[in-house]
Protein 1
Amino acid sequence: MAFKIGNIQVFPHNYYFDFMKWRKVTVGISILLVVASLLIIGIKGLNYSIDFLGGAEIQVNILNKSLTREQIKEAVNKEGFAHAEVTAYGNLGSRKDNTEAYIIRIQREKGQDENATTSRADTLVNNLKTQFGAEKIQIASVTNISGKVGKEDEYKGYMALLLSCIGILIYIAFRFDARFSPGAVLCLIHNVIIALGFMTLLGRPFTTTSIAAFLTIVGYSINDTVIVYDRIRETRLYQPKMPMIEVVNRSISQTMNRTILTSTTGILALLVLSIMGGGSIEDFAITMLVGVIVGTYSSIYVAAPLTLMMDSYFNKLGWKQKDNAEKAVVEKPKDFAPPINVRKKIPQEKK
């Protein structure tokens, strides 16, 4: 096993590993993770944010630098808003009065109507004015957010996930083979469910940004899976008599350098965003971090084993692929020129 710093080579060019030897174990682990994620989602439920439940947004300007975000957050929590968000607003460098601004987002409690939430928001505004005074805090605006808009966004997000999976199913069937499609789509569903279960376990809020993260996970996962599938197709084209399990092992081994380097780069960037991002960026980064890790694993140990399973099933039904022996002969282009090998002179030892 090779590792280089210059040109960053992790595995040698002739690297080979029997990945499918452990396919029954890894598929079993994936099933357990999916079932555990569904149980967590069913028991705890999604922590819907103000984007879906509705609520109110209060923009406050801090006129005195002695008043910190933690003090505002503590004052909001004392009023009974346990799930309130206090985030920085705008760019401090572009503000002419050199004041800081925050957005306080309070969500509607379950079973509470919008009028009650509006009344609680007004009470919070009055208490903030009384506690800190007009010389420290200024209420810039109070905006009510309807829960109906959030339900529409939620419906559109779910439809986007469903339609993307259907589109990928059709694309894989036409681009490669029908036996590749189920593995790709189930791989995507596997990744989204595990990422959603992990997010629910941590109690992270489910926002419109979360839906964007899941769509990004779908795109990243299918990109990794298609690269493995493309190498499987090429290997089977040039080696038509090679067993399918050998084709899969060789194809995954040949793409391991790309998989490791791409995933590592993405993970490092997402770790920085998870630690230093804050707010919705932090939620997006954490969800994506889980999705990238699970997506890298699933492209090897979920999509490939399911493709083997479908190939075996289709062969039993008598649906075999066409003989590609003729296509396996690579035609040389007209401007083809053989590579020039320069022999190095070996200095002879002096007698």
Protein 2
Amino acid sequence: MEKLKKIMLPIMSTVVVVSTLISSQVYAATTTFKDVQANHWAKSAIESAVSKGYFKGYGNGLFKPNASVTRAEFASLISRVAKDMTLPEDAQTDSFKDLNGHWSKAEVDRAVNLGFINTKDYPNGFKPSTPITREEMAKWLSSGLVASSNEYKTAFAETKETLLPVKESFKPGIAQDKIPYLALAMGTNLMNGFPDGSFGMDKTTTRAESSAILLRLENVLKKNAAAFDDLNELRMVGIEKSNLELVSSLTTGNTSISDISGKRKTFRNGSGSLVFHRLIAVDVQEWNKKKSIYAPLFVAADDKSFYDEMRNVLPVFSEITIYPKAKDFDVIHYLNGVIDFTGGSKIVNKLHEKYGYINLPNMNTKQFFKENNKGVRLWVANYIDLNNPNSQFDMDGGSFAVIRKK
């Protein structure tokens, strides 16, 4: 009997240990929090992030989904997600002096060494308890992607002059050195804009939002830059100054919109001139599957009836700067002064009010151009017949571009 007890005790201990491990794993996979309701938009993301060990809950069954995330916390989170990334041989172990003795030091050092955080951005210390802004978050995420592969490094370079589909692009404007960071974050769907059209660069991010971002980062790190349609579009607009060939069946052939970007066109009536910047197309052939990351900027819900009637039409939107010259210059001077595709009409919806870009005026136009007599950058609309798309842009000096079928 005594011998049997000696045999059974280790077995029972093993069973207890195994049962505990299984219970812990099941608990981790099905963790619920009292402050995360069943209908919370990020419930599954929160539970998944916790089960993977990225996030931890607080005591008493709380997650605090609406609490802001600090620099130290987010650095630790991305370090955990990027667990498969290899540290360089010359890895730093003392990135910031103000982290000595801080709980996050090792993970912040890891985030720095993996390329997510640039120590030069924090010359006065990391200040780990500072809530991280969305602009910072986008920069960290994009920097990590760039460090992870040459493809993302190339994508970063190609988006330096792209157009970001957020209102900050127009008011107050985004510094060019910040654009590619936001482009990579948005193009890979790591971060998106808000319903009001803004990116919210100075806003902080909640623990719930960060949970969703972490799971996306886990996925993005497994893919190459070319796998993301939105990023490909942002890259093309950055290089070619147009997304035309990505979202439609049309092409500029041996010419390019980039050939006319920055070029001047003098109006044939001598009333002024314009400089062409870029052209954005939105495929509306399938209303619920509009092609283009820029669709929300230019095509509104109240446009649907128009496009339902105007089948086989591709709307394109051109950004130009008009320089008035004639006395009492008004919109008629522009419309009569251009007969090729550098001419355009007013965008008829009110999305320009939401995003803050300037639309071609159709009222009080003399006063409008009088107030902007040094030049005004604005957007105009055109509509290409997909059955007969031949359209041409002719600029001063002989530069031109042609749109035709592929």
Protein 3
Amino acid sequence: MTDLEFKSSSEFSLGMEIELQLLNPQTLQLVDGILPLLAHIPKNSCIQPEFQQASVEISSRVCLNIHELETDILAILSHLKLQCQNLGMNICTSGTHPFCDRFTNVTPTPRYLAQQAASGYLADMMMTFALQVHVGMPSGDVAVDIMGKLQPYLPILLALSASSPFWWGRDTGFASYRHRFLSSSRTYGTPGLFPTWKDFCQFFISSQNAGMFQIIRDIHWDLRPQPELGTLEIRVMDAQPTVKESIILAALIHSLVLYLYHYPQGKHTGFLLSPLPWLMEKENFFRASRWGLDANYIENEQGGTRPIGDIIRDILDAIAPTADNLGASSYLQLLAQRLETGASYTRQRRVFENTGSLKAVVASLVKELEEELTTSSTDVYP
């Protein structure tokens, strides 16, 4: 067996990918706009197609800190918004589009068409939108070590990011229905635990031999290594309506990864979450997707639970010195405020309760991003 090469990157650098919705400005329905958009934009590695034609993905450069990442994402989004306006489209994002009730038109690339053929009916309904954060890793062994330590925190990130209460015109009762839908697909969900990078390589090559995956990107776990980029990619989160909300989640992840990396070396002490039996971990994901920040989190093998908000406060206290060293303290203060004000799913439901209109919900998502980009002083991306 030949090990996959892990191309180490700048230690604990940052990157971000955001999947956005392409909209008809009048109806606010999803529109299959990616092909004309790509034809209108010169080849640009920061603006890419996604699985379905009503989505566009932006990718940041490799950034050294959270402030640089925020500036970069704002610039790319400002550029994207301008190009979409020129083509008669608007943009917004959240984990799902609240009232889309049609099947996906898949972007006609060989990879996406093969995925559609393999996934069947599930692929036709794949109208979901995610936020992904990359953290640079010095080696594959460090990447899989952090992957195992970070796994118990994934339901926390899901609850904080939940922004998909509506699906096909109905309130699902879930804070993140996107995660529930994706859990039915064969390549999504929680990763396994791998003691070493060699163990992960053995798993992947065996999976290739079995016809499960062709490339690493075919593994759609909530958390996965990206050897070609030299990163650990955190994928559990719903897309966020605003850049600020995406950045505060990235600041939490960045601080948490550094904290977990240094913890065995005795540089930090404090609150840690431990791995649980698989069914308890699965239950924590369900609770986070169902009740969001109102969930009770199972925190030990004896079945003890606590409100997820209390768990989050303990995490923020433990990683505060790390966040301060990274210049991220102000972002985590904003994150702490979210425990009082609620995540996007709360705002969306409030708009619907006040208006009775899911179109008004989408309009509020458009407005949130538009106001943020209008007030930003960031230059348009070249």
